Amino acid sequence: MKSTLLTLIILSSPAQALTLTTEDYPPFNIVDAKSQQVSGISTEKVIEVMARAKESYTITAYPWVRAYQLAQKERDTCVFSTTRTPERVALFQWVGPLVKNNWYIFAKQGDNRAPKNLDELKPYSIGAYHGDAIAEYLLKNGFKVDLAKADEDNPQKLLKNRFDFWATGELLGLAILKRKNLSDKISPILLFNQTELYLACNLNVDKKKIDIYNKILQSMDKDGSNLAIENKYRK
Fold first, then answer.
1. Where along the chain do the CATH 3.40.190.10 domains lie?
2. Which of 11, 200, 222, 229 has CA atoms 20 to 30 A from the CA of 29?
3. What value does the CA radius of gyration of the chain take, rounded to a whole number of Å?
4. Among 102, 96, 103, which residue's Cα sits nearest to residue 81?
């Protein structure tokens, strides 16, 4: 009798709310320093997907490595905005793409070196940040990489000649420079890759939910919702 009662309790318990983790990665995820509320292009798309799916969820911002590791290790946890790479494909279930992300090399104003491609930067050191897909890509391809704990630290490190160039997402780099009033000192000089950012979910999240989220995201493309969100952040 006790086992039957236990079974009934388990079956009638409410579904576990999703835990969504992220980082400050403007304009895709923008964390308000005071309130810790998260906005941004990817964030608004994910929130709309959850609303249409009638999904309970929380969003919490962490340093990137912690946000990423939580989604790998914890049930019912997803992380965004996550670059989908061949090395990461089997680690998660994927919802997206949410947005495209151009990878750029940034240099100090007045730097006369004008690389035509990434291979020309092999002799130089490049700043990136720990755990980021760009850093992983550069290390895998044999570049000398100086890793920061956060991408926000890299502009000052570049200006202090800690490394020769800075590799980051185009829009993120421009947002960081604007935030730090350094737009007149550092600028993007070389596009070297374009990737897509996703909501990456723990392998234990119900596959049916992943399919539903992807279908909703596709419907948001068709009905113009995704474009409307993107246009808000282009003003």
1. 9-100+196-232, 102-194
2. 222
3. 20
4. 96
Can you tell me the distance from the alpha carbon of 84 to that of 81, in angstroms, rounded to the nearest whole number? 9
User: Tens digits of per-residue pLDDT, 18-52?
Assistant: 999 999 999 999 999 999 999 999 999 999 999 99
- The CATH architecture that domain 102-194 belongs to is 3-Layer(aba) Sandwich (3.40)
What is the bridge-based pairing of β-strands 18-22 and 57-61? parallel
Distances (CA, A) of 228 to 65, 99, 231, 233: 31, 13, 5, 9
b/e map 151-170, b = 16+ CB within 10 Å = beebbeebeeeebbbbbbbb
User: Hey, what CATH class is 9-100+196-232 in?
Assistant: alpha beta
pTM above 0.70, yes or no: yes
| Spatial contact of 98 and 42, defined as CB atoms under 8 Å apart | yes
Q: What is the DSSP letter of 17?
A: P
Match 């160039």 to its residue by tokens: 165
Measured distance CA(31)–CA(98) in Å, rounded: 18
Torsion of CA 179, 184, 189, 191, to 10 degrees: 20
Torsion of CA 68, 74, 79, 85, to 10 degrees: 60
Sequence letter at residue 86:
P
